[in-house]
Design a protein that fits this description.
elongated; six-stranded antiparallel beta sheet; 168 residues
Length: 168
Protein backbone atom coordinates (compact mmCIF):
# COMPACT_ATOMS: atom_id res chain seq x y z
CA UNK A 1 0.00 0.00 0.00
CA UNK A 2 1.00 3.59 -0.53
CA UNK A 3 0.43 6.47 1.84
CA UNK A 4 0.16 10.06 0.76
CA UNK A 5 -0.72 13.40 2.26
CA UNK A 6 -3.96 15.08 1.39
CA UNK A 7 -3.96 18.15 -0.81
CA UNK A 8 -5.64 20.06 2.04
CA UNK A 9 -2.51 19.45 4.15
CA UNK A 10 -0.04 20.52 1.40
CA UNK A 11 0.64 16.83 0.70
CA UNK A 12 2.26 16.48 4.14
CA UNK A 13 2.18 13.13 5.92
CA UNK A 14 2.07 13.37 9.70
CA UNK A 15 2.85 10.52 12.06
CA UNK A 16 0.83 10.42 15.25
CA UNK A 17 2.61 10.85 18.57
CA UNK A 18 3.90 7.52 19.86
CA UNK A 19 4.18 6.05 16.33
CA UNK A 20 7.32 5.81 14.21
CA UNK A 21 7.83 5.76 10.47
CA UNK A 22 11.02 4.21 9.11
CA UNK A 23 11.84 4.34 5.42
CA UNK A 24 14.87 2.75 3.74
CA UNK A 25 17.76 5.19 3.63
CA UNK A 26 16.49 7.37 6.47
CA UNK A 27 18.63 8.08 9.50
CA UNK A 28 17.02 6.35 12.48
CA UNK A 29 19.36 7.79 15.12
CA UNK A 30 22.72 9.46 15.51
CA UNK A 31 25.15 9.37 18.43
CA UNK A 32 28.39 11.26 18.86
CA UNK A 33 31.55 11.12 20.92
CA UNK A 34 33.09 14.57 21.13
CA UNK A 35 36.33 14.73 23.09
CA UNK A 36 37.76 18.23 23.43
CA UNK A 37 41.50 18.57 23.17
CA UNK A 38 43.28 19.69 26.31
CA UNK A 39 44.42 23.29 26.58
CA UNK A 40 47.22 23.73 29.09
CA UNK A 41 50.70 25.06 29.60
CA UNK A 42 52.29 21.90 28.19
CA UNK A 43 51.31 19.45 25.46
CA UNK A 44 48.50 17.16 26.62
CA UNK A 45 47.08 15.01 23.78
CA UNK A 46 43.99 12.83 24.10
CA UNK A 47 46.20 9.85 23.17
CA UNK A 48 49.98 9.80 23.30
CA UNK A 49 51.66 6.54 22.33
CA UNK A 50 54.83 4.90 21.14
CA UNK A 51 53.18 1.46 21.26
CA UNK A 52 53.78 -0.87 18.33
CA UNK A 53 50.54 -2.68 19.25
CA UNK A 54 47.12 -1.17 18.61
CA UNK A 55 45.73 1.07 21.35
CA UNK A 56 42.25 2.60 21.61
CA UNK A 57 41.89 6.21 20.52
CA UNK A 58 38.11 6.72 20.13
CA UNK A 59 35.36 4.35 21.34
CA UNK A 60 31.57 4.77 21.03
CA UNK A 61 28.61 2.36 21.22
CA UNK A 62 25.22 2.47 19.51
CA UNK A 63 22.18 0.29 20.23
CA UNK A 64 20.22 -0.48 17.07
CA UNK A 65 16.54 0.40 16.92
CA UNK A 66 15.86 -1.71 13.80
CA UNK A 67 17.10 -5.03 12.45
CA UNK A 68 19.66 -5.08 9.62
CA UNK A 69 20.38 -1.35 9.63
CA UNK A 70 23.53 0.12 8.17
CA UNK A 71 25.79 2.08 10.51
CA UNK A 72 27.63 5.10 9.13
CA UNK A 73 30.86 5.61 11.08
CA UNK A 74 32.97 8.74 10.87
CA UNK A 75 35.96 9.64 13.01
CA UNK A 76 37.99 12.81 12.80
CA UNK A 77 40.87 14.44 14.60
CA UNK A 78 44.40 15.62 13.92
CA UNK A 79 47.66 14.10 15.01
CA UNK A 80 50.97 15.65 15.86
CA UNK A 81 54.40 14.03 15.94
CA UNK A 82 57.62 15.19 17.56
CA UNK A 83 59.83 13.39 15.01
CA UNK A 84 59.62 11.55 11.70
CA UNK A 85 57.00 8.91 12.50
CA UNK A 86 54.78 6.40 10.79
CA UNK A 87 52.13 3.95 11.89
CA UNK A 88 48.80 2.30 11.22
CA UNK A 89 45.17 2.79 12.14
CA UNK A 90 42.16 0.52 12.14
CA UNK A 91 38.44 0.67 12.82
CA UNK A 92 36.75 -2.13 14.76
CA UNK A 93 33.14 -3.21 15.13
CA UNK A 94 33.29 -4.92 18.51
CA UNK A 95 36.39 -7.12 17.91
CA UNK A 96 36.13 -7.31 14.08
CA UNK A 97 38.31 -5.07 11.90
CA UNK A 98 36.06 -3.32 9.36
CA UNK A 99 38.64 -0.91 7.95
CA UNK A 100 42.39 -0.65 8.18
CA UNK A 101 44.88 1.88 6.94
CA UNK A 102 48.56 1.07 6.62
CA UNK A 103 50.51 4.31 7.05
CA UNK A 104 47.47 6.12 8.44
CA UNK A 105 49.99 8.63 9.60
CA UNK A 106 53.34 9.20 7.98
CA UNK A 107 55.53 12.23 8.52
CA UNK A 108 59.05 12.76 7.29
CA UNK A 109 59.77 15.44 9.86
CA UNK A 110 58.69 16.72 13.26
CA UNK A 111 56.16 19.36 14.23
CA UNK A 112 53.35 18.62 11.79
CA UNK A 113 49.58 18.51 12.34
CA UNK A 114 47.80 16.19 9.89
CA UNK A 115 44.26 14.72 9.57
CA UNK A 116 43.39 11.39 11.13
CA UNK A 117 40.03 9.91 10.08
CA UNK A 118 37.87 7.01 8.97
CA UNK A 119 34.58 7.10 7.09
CA UNK A 120 32.76 3.78 6.61
CA UNK A 121 29.22 2.55 5.87
CA UNK A 122 29.09 -0.67 7.89
CA UNK A 123 26.65 -3.59 7.48
CA UNK A 124 26.68 -5.36 10.85
CA UNK A 125 23.55 -7.50 10.13
CA UNK A 126 22.41 -6.97 13.71
CA UNK A 127 19.04 -7.56 15.33
CA UNK A 128 17.09 -4.64 16.77
CA UNK A 129 18.30 -3.85 20.29
CA UNK A 130 21.90 -4.95 19.62
CA UNK A 131 24.63 -2.80 21.17
CA UNK A 132 27.60 -2.40 18.83
CA UNK A 133 30.85 -0.77 19.92
CA UNK A 134 33.10 0.95 17.37
CA UNK A 135 36.75 1.68 18.09
CA UNK A 136 39.33 3.74 16.24
CA UNK A 137 42.73 2.31 17.17
CA UNK A 138 46.26 3.46 16.43
CA UNK A 139 49.77 2.02 16.60
CA UNK A 140 53.24 3.36 15.91
CA UNK A 141 55.55 1.40 13.64
CA UNK A 142 58.63 3.59 13.98
CA UNK A 143 59.80 7.06 14.84
CA UNK A 144 58.65 9.48 17.48
CA UNK A 145 55.61 9.73 19.71
CA UNK A 146 52.15 9.82 18.13
CA UNK A 147 49.90 12.46 19.71
CA UNK A 148 46.21 12.29 18.72
CA UNK A 149 43.90 15.15 19.62
CA UNK A 150 46.79 17.38 20.62
CA UNK A 151 46.51 20.42 22.89
CA UNK A 152 48.89 22.95 24.41
CA UNK A 153 48.89 26.50 25.75
CA UNK A 154 48.14 27.86 22.29
CA UNK A 155 45.06 25.81 21.47
CA UNK A 156 43.57 22.38 21.07
CA UNK A 157 42.48 19.73 18.57
CA UNK A 158 39.19 17.95 19.24
CA UNK A 159 38.44 14.32 18.42
CA UNK A 160 35.04 13.13 17.16
CA UNK A 161 33.25 9.90 16.32
CA UNK A 162 29.76 9.99 14.78
CA UNK A 163 27.60 6.86 14.42
CA UNK A 164 24.35 6.98 12.42
CA UNK A 165 21.90 4.11 12.10
CA UNK A 166 20.33 4.04 8.63
CA UNK A 167 17.12 2.06 8.00
CA UNK A 168 17.12 -0.59 5.24
Amino acid sequence: QNIQGSSSSSNTISVASGHTLHAPGHVVQAVQLHTPGNVGTSSTPILSTTSTSYVDFLTKAITTKLANSLIYVKTYSLYYTNAATYGDGRLLRDSTTIDECKYMYYTGSADQFLPLSFQVLDSPSAAAGTTITYKHQMKRNSGGTLNCGYGDGGGKVNANMVLMEIAQ
